[in-house]
Each structure stands twice: as C-alpha cells, then as structure tokens.
Amino acid sequence: MKRHPSAAAATRTAAFLVAAVATAGVAAASGTPALPPDLPAQVPAWPLLLVAVAAIIVMLVRRPSPGRARALVAESAQREADRRLLAVIASAQSAYIRSSNLRNSFDPLLAQILELTDSRFGFVGEVLYDDAGKPYLRSYVISNIAWDEASAAFYREHAPQGMIFGNLETLFGRVLTSAQPLISNNPRNDPRSGGIPPGHPELESFLGLPILYGDAMIGMIGMANRPGGYAPSMITYLEPLLRSLGQLIHDLRQESERQRIQQQLEQEREDMLARVDRLFEHLPGVVYQYEVRADGSARFPFTSAGPTRIFDVARDVSARTAQPVLDMIPADERARVVEGMAAAARTGTIWSDQFRAIHPQRGEIWVSCRASPESRPNGDVLWHGFALDITATRQTEVALERERARFRATVDNLPGAVYRCRSDAQWTMAYLSDEIRKITGHPAHDFIDNRERSFASVVHPDDLAATFRSVATTPPGESYELTYRIRHADGREVWVRDRGRCEYDDAGQPVWCDGFLWDVTDYQRVERMKSQFVSTVSHELRTPLTAVVGALGLIGGGALGEPPPAMRRMLDLARQNSESLQALIDDLLDVEKLGEGKLVLQPEVVAVQPLVDQAIDEIQAYAARFHVTVVAGRRDAATFLVDGRRFRQILGNYLSNACKFSPAGSTVVVEARQEKGRVVVTVTDCGEGIPEEFQPYLFEKFSQGEAPNTRRRGGTGLGLAISRELARQMGGEVGFRSTPGKGSSFWVSFPTAAQQDQPGRES
Amino acid sequence: MTELVRILHIEDDPSVQEVVRVSLEDVGGFTVATRSSGRDGLAAAGTFLPQLVLLDVMMPEMDGPETLARLRALPGMKDVPVVFMTARAQHHEVAEYLALGAAAVITKPFDPMALPERLRALWRDWQSPQRDGAA
C-alpha cells in the first residue's frame, strides 16, 4: 500500500525546514543578509518566514557605518545576488514539497539556476556507481540542446527517465572522479575536455559542481556558456544551493528507495499470497482467519481460495463482514458455535466443532471447523483456522446409521441372537445381537472381543468340545447346526440351537463363523418328553409283546401239541403281525436313539460276503410271504468297517421293501461290489419303481411312496430313514436308482477297510 | 460235567413268567422256580439252589442289577450264572450288564422254542475249564 502523498509531503517539508534554516544560518554567519524581497506566491509562508526573521534580526544588530559607503554598494549587489539565490533555493524546496512527481521539481529549478548564473544550458543529475564502483551520471533535468532531428528524438525519448552519462574523460567526468568543482573557461583547448559530439553547440565555458550530502557525492550540477566565463566566486556563491540540492537529492533518493522497497514488499506479498492460494487450492477445505472485534462485529480477513469455498461468499465480502456466512448457520447451531468459540478464546485453547448450515443453493451442508484464538490487546480475537465441508461424509454417516438402526431393529426382532465370531478356542465374538442377553443373562458387549467373558465360557463344558468338532468338520459351503447347552447367569441350563456357516482360509480351515442361535429349551423339553414317552411306551409294549410272541412261538413250535390246520393259519397270522409290531417298535426306538445321537455303534472290520448271505437268509421267510425269491448276485471279497448287526438292519430294510414292492414270482438280487475304494451293496427289484415326485423324500422319516398299493403292503415308513442315518453314522452313504414301471436299485456304500486305513486319501 | 436242571426265573410280568415256564419246562425239560420280584427271588435262591438264574432287568423296587449284586452275597451263589432278560439291549447296555457279572443277555421278545437250547449252550460254556482261564 502506498503512503499517502500528503504524508510524504509533510516529511519532506520537515526535512527542508532544517535545510532552509541551515542555509539562512550560513548566510547570516558570512555577514550577508539574504532576505528575499518577493516571495513567489506558491512558496509556503512559514518556513521562509523563519529565514526572513533571522535575516531581519541580523540586519538590526549590524547597522552600516558611514565609512563603509562604497562597500555598501558592493554589498547591495551582493545582497541582490544572495536574494536571487535564496529565491531559487526556496523555489526548489517549495516545488519539491508540493510536487507529486519529484523529478518534475528539477525542471523549473534548472531554468532558475541557468538564469541565476547567466548560463546558456546545463543539467542537474544524480551520481551513481556501477558494479565496478565507477561513477556515472543520470540526469534529473537537462537543457534541450538538440542540434538535429536525431538528437531531438534521442532527447525526447531519454530525457524524461534521465539520461546516463558515463564517459569520465570529459569535463563533467573529472568532477565525478574528483568530487571537486571544475571551471573551464576555454574548453576547446582544455586538456581535461574529452571533446563534444559533432553538431553539439559550441562549449565556450563550463562549470561543474559536485553535490554532496555529508562527505558523499550524490549529485552534480553542470552549466555552460556563461558570457565571460565562470569565476571561482561562483562556486562559493552557489554553495548554499548545492547544499540544499544535496539534501533534496538525498531525500529524493530515500523516497525512491522507500518506494522501491514498498513496491517490492507489496509485490512479494502479492506473490506470496498467490503462492499460498495455489497451495491452498489443493486442500480439501478452507484455511481462514476470523476476526471478532471487541464490538462484536466479525469478518474473515483471510480465506484461502480453492475448489471448496463451502459458503461461496466472495472473499472481498467476507473480508469486510462475516455476516453472510453467519446468516447461513441456523440460530441454535450458531449459539452453540459462538458459545464454544468464546469459551475457547477465554482459555486460549483450540476450538473445534461440527455444525449445520443452510446454503442458499445447496441446501443443508455440514461444516467441520478447527481454529486457535489469538487475543489482541484491544479486545479483538483473531482466529486461525481450517474449515472442511463434511456434508458428503455426514450424509453417508447418517445413511449408514439409518441402515444400522434398521438392521439392529430387524435383528432385535429376531427370536434369537445373530453373531459373527472367530473360529477360535474362545468363540471370540466380533458381533453379537442383544437377544443374547435373554439367552445367557449377559449383555452382548460383554462378549465382544472377550471383553468380560468369552462365549465359550458360557457354553456347557460337556458340550463345548462338540461345538468345536461340529464346526471344524463342516465342509466349506455347507451350514452347520448344533444343539448345546448354555449356562445362564442365573444358573439355569438353556438349550440352544445354533445354525451358521463359516468362512475358510486358503488352507480350508474355518476362520469366521456367521450364524444365528436361539433358545430351544422348551422344544428340547418337549422333545425329551416325547422321546421318553416313545421309549417308555416302546418298552412297555415290548413286555406284552414278549408274551404274545412267546406264546405264539410255543404253539407254532408245537410245544403244546399240533393245532388243527385252520387254527394254525390263524396262529401264523397272529405271529406274523406280532413280528411286524415288534419291527415297528424296534424302528421307533432306533429313530429316537438316532435323533438323539444315543445309538451306540460297534464298528469292526468285517467281510461283506457273510453279512450279505446272512441278510438273505434272514429275509427268506418274509420273501416267501410275497412269493418273491431273493438271490445273491456278484459278491466281491472285501472287508469294511461297520457294525455288522446294523449293516444287516440296513440291508434288511432294503430287502423287505424290495419284497413288498415286487410282483409275485419275481426275483430280488443282492450284489456286493468293490468299486473305487468302496464296498457297494445293491438290492435290485423288478417292482413298480418309485414315482419321480416322491423320490426326493424317499429317505425322509415316515415317508412312503404314493403307489396305490403301498398302504396295503404295510410298513412304518421309517426303514429308509433309519438306514440312511445308520449308514451316515458308520461313514457310509445310501442312494437309489429307479425307473417307474421297471423297478429300483437301492445301494449302500462304505469305504473299504484298506481305504479307511489311509484317512488322507480321498475316497 | 453237571447237567443243567434247576433254573430260577425272576420276572414281574405274569404272562412272560408263563411263556418262560412253558418254554423251559415243556420244551426244555428243566425244573423252574418262578418268582415275581427280586426280594422273592433272593429268598428262593437259598432253598431252591438254582444252577442258573434268569433275571428280568426292569422290575419295581429291586431291579435286576441290584438283585444280582445281592444274589452274589448269598452263600453258594457266587459263581451261579445269571442271564439277564431285557427289552433294553443296546450295545452299551449289554456291555454294562456283562460288566456287572451277567453271563449273557437275552433280548425280549425272544424265541421260546430256541430258549432252552440257548441256555444249555451257555451252561456248557460256563462249565468249560477255558472259562476260568479266560476270566
């Protein structure tokens, strides 16, 4: 910013008062009163008044005596000369003080000097030094002595900025190098003269005077062609003028330097701001200064430019007042912000906050601010801060929170607990829904990262190992389902069912498990009651059945004599049905035991052939009833690891079904083959086959084909379900192939004993 | 080798009692003493001096295993073979009964025509000298 011209003028005025008084002082001391009789109208009155008063005092003190009349004439001429000199000085000073362009003040000055010294032309310039320390001259003002068109053009072009003269082998050059006045009244023959350019007006006489400030030569005045030449007294005469000019040039230089530095600083500041702005453009927010004045008004002295201006208030506006920005912040938010800033300003601490604002175009926006206060003595507080538009983040957060709330509400409404846990020894929970509190008596957060307790710690110790085992053996992609007990905080045992799925690492080990567990205590109780009931009833049924079967067996066996043929048929009927009843009871008990995992198997390595033969023997009587023949087909010699009795039970179920569903007179074939490391035993009939729509449910409990004569042929519908479960528990698989109308093949397969000795090998 | 003759049958169900009696007496030709409870059975053992005891597992008041334990404490009953009869005859249950000292376990319902021969075979095994060595 530039200094105000009037301020600069005032400074200069003060400087020249000192110079003027000094000049007057010198004049007074030399006994030459120097009162200018007619002051130019444009000269300020009071500094000259001081000079005048000083002169009058000198005059009053020193009155002329009659003996010095001749001297008085000379003195009068001298006084006139001094007056003219003073006028020139005053004029120069006045022009310097008044002129807005300091260089312009030299123009009238040169004219006055030439007139004062009766010179034809001249110059005033400043002395400068080049990098080598060699002096040169730059003109402030120079008489236009153009002698042709070229020199006139040169003058027009260079005179206003100052002409440079660096040739020291000239008369004025001698002044520059010696800093001494020089008079040459015969330049043409003066060996000091370096000549003049062709066409240059003839130089008849020359006076060069150094202008000193202190001991330093800072300028030079040159004049030429005074009729009669220059006398050394001229040097003395002009001395006060030179001194004034020295002061004037010095001030001019200082002012120039000050202006130059000022401009340089201004430029540097602008450059810096531009650089800062460019840097700030890359910030995601706005760097700002916020000034709160003691009177409560506020403004942003500085805000960085950038793509995110947040409030989009022009910088020049916000630099004047913060009101447009403040107006965008809703009253309640603003109150909180203002209060927070005031508190931080009091304690000198950093303030940060996030608040809402209503942007005229964008609507609701969210802003995050952080700033540190700088309290000033006058009560103002200047904040240095950074503001960030967090609208997008906030919107995402809000949407996310809404989703979370919806998810929580959904999860909380589930009749069980949702979880995500690590597959580690603690079942470390990463997420667990609140419903777990009902199940365990502990809040969900207790379990997260095992903060208060691990989930494993509330699983019944007797069931814990089974949970690890079940999860570890669940193949990737398949769900696990566990039933185990939880030890509730109040001491109860809570039965839960837990269904989930794991994420596996590259090595195929489960890492994370996601699932859902729910309280099945009541269900479990009912199940247990049902099991107990079935078990009890079955056993209670067996006792009378033992008597019935036993009694019929004794009669049939002839222990009580031979019954008549008609009676024997009825007795056989009774015996067959009691056997069916016995089979039904056995099946029911097996299903219950399998369901509870209580069926104990005793696998041992056995040969398949004898088992097949035994099963065929056992079914013969049954097959005879349906007039079906059961025969053994191909039987490979192979051994496998099974519970022999239970394997025969599977085969017995297949065979009894085959007999039931085969037409009279047909043959059922049993084969045992060794294929690809497995023993596959197949029972093939020539029956009606299984309707396609029924095939998916064939191995389910209580299922039977919908063939019209199924019911007539009887059966519990449990046989295949039991067979599948028995096979599974012995490591085997079951299946069938069936073509409706052409018969069915049921198979059961187990790894061979040799295969089972190599658990690593795939089978 | 001693012939198996006297069998004590302890069973609370009268129907089963009757079937077993006919099976063992009429088919098998044994002498059978039938008692309806463990207490009565133990009382009879001292006088009847059975060579083999057929013992129902599930009985009110005193069940089969308890009756067996008490029977063993009676004079002369230490080495008498005791055969359990039960409707509960899973592997582990059978193993449990054998561990208690039962000679065999017969599952209900049973074939009454085959029962006498089965007991005779069992008796023969029990009498054989290898049994002692194996025990």
Terminal CA distance of chain B: 19 Å
Give the assembly state of these chains: heterodimer
Low-pLDDT runs of 5+ residues of chain B are none
Shape of chain B: globular
Largest sheet of chain A: 6 strands, antiparallel
For the secondary structure, the number of strands of chain A is 23
User: What fraction strand of chain A?
Assistant: 15-25%
Total number of strands of chain B: 5
Strand order of the largest sheet of chain A: 3-2-1-6-5-4
The H/E string of chain B reads EHEHEHEHEHH
**Helix amount of chain B, in percent?**
40-55%
Structural class by helix and strand composition of chain A: alpha+beta
Spans of at least 5 consecutive residues with low confidence of chain A = 1-43, 705-712, 759-763
Largest contact between chains? A-B, 25 and 22 residues
- Nearest-angstrom radius of gyration of chain B? 14 Å
* Biggest sheet strand line-up of chain B: 2-1-3-4-5
What structural class do helix, strand and pairing data of chain B support? alpha/beta
What is the residue-mean pLDDT of chain B, rounded to a whole number? 90
- The span between the termini of chain A is 93 Å
Q: What is the general shape of chain A? A: rod-shaped
Q: What is the beta-strand fraction of chain B?
A: 15-25%
Structural notes for this entry:
The complex is a heterodimer of chains A (763) and B (135). By secondary structure, chain A is of the alpha+beta class. Chain A is 45% helix and 23% strand. Chain A has a six-stranded antiparallel beta sheet, sandwiched between helices. In chain A, strands 8-7-11-10-9 form a five-stranded antiparallel beta sheet. In chain A, β1 and β2 (135-142) form a beta hairpin. The longest helix of chain A has 49 residues, at 232-280. The two termini of chain A are 93 Å apart. In chain B, 47% of the residues lie in helices and 18% in strands. Chain B is of the alpha/beta class and 135 residues long. In chain B, α3 (64-73) links the parallel β3 (52-56) and β4 (82-86). In chain B, strands 2-1-3-4-5 form a five-stranded parallel beta sheet, sandwiched between helices. Chain B contains six helices and five strands; from the N terminus they run βαβαβαβαβαα. The mean pLDDT of chain B is 90. In chain B, α2 runs parallel beside α3 (64-73). Chain A binds chain B through residues 538-539, 542-551, 553-554, 556-557, 559-560, 578, 582, 593, 599-602, and chain B through 13, 15-16, 18-20, 22-23, 26-27, 58, 87-88, 90-92, 108-113.
